[in-house]
Amino acid sequence: MSTEPKRPRYWWESFSPDAARAGAELAVLRRGIGKEAGSVPEMWRFHRASLDSYEADTGLPSARLRAEHTALTLFAVHQQSQRKSMHQEKTGLGQALRRLRQSDKYKSNPETLDTRVNVLATSFDVAELAHHLRGLTTLLRGIQQPLDYTRLYYDVLGWHSPEGQDRARRRWGAQYYDWADAKPQPRTSA
Question: pTM, whole model, 2 decimals?
Answer without folding.
Answer: 0.90
